[in-house]
């Protein structure tokens, strides 16, 4: 008869390397306590890695870069998927994603309609801030980032260069999604967003 350890490692090995797992993914094999103990043993044997509390992975290894840890974005998305929650990068994380800042924030902050929480990744943290559904209504990946990044810079501090970077990004957004999301932005951000749409229709 297979032990819980065997069942857990078999399920993990069947998945693509780098896939993320939560303790609750294995509860069909035993109680929460038994599964946690099995995962601890597999970490000690270096068969799997503990990414954060209750989050595990069988990490990929690159011949040049060595062990490839999952990105903060991948961890955040996995948690959102598990919790059936929506998330949007905000603050300096949104600025970095759009190339408006080269600074990698120590804390990756996301707005969410799920639970507010902090995930400790060692040197970095993922912070989920509870917000109203309206703030998560944007349907475009680029346009939702733009709204958060522009808010972070501020109406009086945004430069012409930053506006142009934003417009160039928005040109890659699906026009339908962009039109939808323009309605959700403050008026001063709408003006910038409309320029991307105008130039798109002129071409």
Can you give a write-up of this model?
α7 packs antiparallel against α8. The chain is of the alpha+beta class and 203 residues long. The N and C termini lie far apart (67 Å). It contains 8 helices and 9 strands. The strands form 3 sheets. A 4-stranded mixed sheet has the order 6-7-9-8. A 3-stranded antiparallel sheet has the order 1-3-2, with helices on both faces. A two-stranded antiparallel sheet has the order 4-5. The protein is elongated, with a radius of gyration of 21 Å. 44% of the residues lie in helices and 17% in strands. The relative contact order is 0.09.
Percentage of residues assigned to helices: 40-55%
Strand content: 15-25%
Structural class: alpha+beta
Average pLDDT number: 92
Quote the distance from N terminus to C terminus.
67 Å
The helix count comes to: 8
The unreliable regions are 199-203
Q: How many β-strand stretches?
A: 9
Give the spatial strand order of the biggest sheet: 6-7-9-8
Descriptive keywords:
alpha+beta, disordered C terminus, 4-stranded mixed beta sheet, 203 residues
Nutshell version of this structure?
With 203 residues, the chain is of the alpha+beta class.
Question: What order do the helices and strands come in, and which of them pair?
Answer:
Blueprint (H helix, E strand, L loop, with lengths): L3 H11 L5 E3 L9 H13 L4 E4 L2 E3 L2 E3 L3 E3 L3 H11 L4 E3 L1 H7 L9 E6 L4 E4 L4 E6 L10 H13 L6 H11 L4 H8 L4 H16 L1
Parallel strand pairs: 7-9
Antiparallel strand pairs: 1-3, 2-3, 4-5, 6-7, 8-9
Helix pairs in contact: 1-2, 4-5, 6-8, 7-8
């Amino acid at each position: 008869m297979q032990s819980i350890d065997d069942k857990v490692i078999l399920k993990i090995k069947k998945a693509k390397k780098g896939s993320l797992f939560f303790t609750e993914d294995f509860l069909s094999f035993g109680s929460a306590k038994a599964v946690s103990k099995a995962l601890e043993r597999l970490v000690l044997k270096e068969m799997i890695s503990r990414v954060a509390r209750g989050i595990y992975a069988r990490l990929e290894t690159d011949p040049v870069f060595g062990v490839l840890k999952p990105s903060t974005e991948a961890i955040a998305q996995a948690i959102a998927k598990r919790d059936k929650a929506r998330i949007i990068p905000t603050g300096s994380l949104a600025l970095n994603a759009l190339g408006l800042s080269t600074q990698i924030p120590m804390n990756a902050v996301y707005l969410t309609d799920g639970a507010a929480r902090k995930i400790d990744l060692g040197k970095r943290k993922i912070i989920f801030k509870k917000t109203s559904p309206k703030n998560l209504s944007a349907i475009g990946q680029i346009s939702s980032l733009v709204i958060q990044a522009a808010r972070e810079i501020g109406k009086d501090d945004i430069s012409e260069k930053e506006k142009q970077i934003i417009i160039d990004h928005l040109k890659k957004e699906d026009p339908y999604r962009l039109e939808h999301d323009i309605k959700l932005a403050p008026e001063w951000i709408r003006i910038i967003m409309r320029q991307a749409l105008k130039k798109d229709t002129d071409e």
